[in-house]
Amino acid sequence: MENISNMSLLSCLVEQTASSIPVVNPANGQTLGFVATHDKLAIENKIQKAKTAQKSWAKTTAKQRADIMQRWYQLLMDNQEDLARIMTLEQGKPLAESRGEVAYGASFLQWFAEEGKRAYGETIPTPLADRRIMTIRQPVGVAAAITPWNFPIAMITRKAAPALAAGCSFVVKPAVQTPLSAYAVAELARQAGLPDDLLVVVTTEDAVMVGELFCQSPDIQKISFTGSTNVGRILMRQSAETVKRVSMELGGNAPFVVFDDADIDLAVKGAIASKFRNAGQTCVCANRFYVHDAVYDEFAEKFAKAVSELKIGDGLEDGVSIGPLIDDKAKEKTQRLLQDAVNEGATIAVGGKALEGQFFEPTILTNVSHTNSIVQEEIFGPIAPLIRFSDEASLIEMANDTIYGLASYFYSKDINRIFRVAEALDYGMVGVNEGVISTEVAPFGGVKQSGIGREGASQGLDEYLNTKYICLGGM
Q1: 274 and 415 in one domain?
Q2: pLDDT category of residue 401 using cuts at 50, 70 and 90
Q3: Which member of 249, 378, 440, 463 is catalytic?
Q4: Does the active-site annotation cover 249?
Q5: What is the pLDDT of residues 324-337, one digit of tens each?
Q6: Distance CA 18, CA 16 (A)
Q7: What is the mean pLDDT of residues 72-98?
Q8: Same domain, yes or no, for 297 and 197?
Q9: Which residues are catalytic (predicted)?
Q10: Confidence of residue 3 (pLDDT cuts 50, 70, 90)
Q11: Which range marks the domain in which residue 412 is found?
């Protein structure tokens, strides 16, 4: 593996066989190595071991769990450079973004190490003199997760940290494109002292089998999924048979609004950060840009100039801002959406070209209508369609005109408008004069068909705890 000093992080690599899974660098198509594939029986055995391990883990104190998680956090930060290089090699994002994700992912370990100590119960005033009422909070049991390739470390730690802090065990299937980051994080957990079988990574190309197994297993009490809304619907249906608790962080179609009183330079900076981070392959990235008539031309000109200066290339190269798309399928979708938009009357202001390999130029489209197909679909690529609007009421209507409700962004200096619009946007998260809003201390999640539940903050711990009511009689 290229320039990875701590090779123990990649002990997951195996010899190539007919069943092993190749890990490919999207920047150049080269195979980085192979990981084992787990069949249904192997995964069932791992779930059983996780169930046994969880019973002992639940008996430890919150402080004992926190001590291990703090060591795990420190190991991630100590190995930040190696983890970042692994991530860039298998996922493609620029190295600076990978470093940032390692720190972001580690922050959940640090946060929930402490938050686990605050899984408080209650003493409730009783309606009867001879009774006392109280509640305690206990871990749900074995939790399972299916995580995506776009944030291969943070999407695991954001789920595993609260699960483990609550006293659960955790079984995760990472995306087939990015298993190395998952195995490296799990290896550091082991080095931090996490008991065996509490954090289990399973890898397979049979996503359907894993989804059905996780949903149908009576030994798994909770499923957390980050991915498309369509897959989320399937997992929810399959989980109904065992009445399993679910957390779903699904698709998005984030509006990015620039009002006539906005700081245009600040809005351009936020638009670049929100739209083109990870080559536009994030669930919370700006998907459609609504710009007031009065500032449309100024914003479009400054935005286009900033985008034209973004460097495209291998994420390991200095100064690269835009890495490759994850695979050929993603590139083909980006090309299709762009061509459909042009066919419907959009104008390419900058970019618009598919490059060699899996690279695609960051692109701005003008003369886009709210009814265009590219506005109605999650792009998940480096294309920014700009739509004009003239009044706040119509803007709110257009911004909310979607089945999704994950993230939204707007720029304004008017304090009255800020509160009015923030409350009117039908989204789980709103960024006001800020294009990057994710943090471990705030709840992350959506409304409508963008998901159920929250990750991060105190709410993230709640997802892995049951509340038990205890009535003491005969007092």
Answers
A1: yes
A2: very high
A3: 249
A4: yes
A5: 999 999 999 999 99
A6: 7
A7: 97
A8: no
A9: 249
A10: confident
A11: 254-432
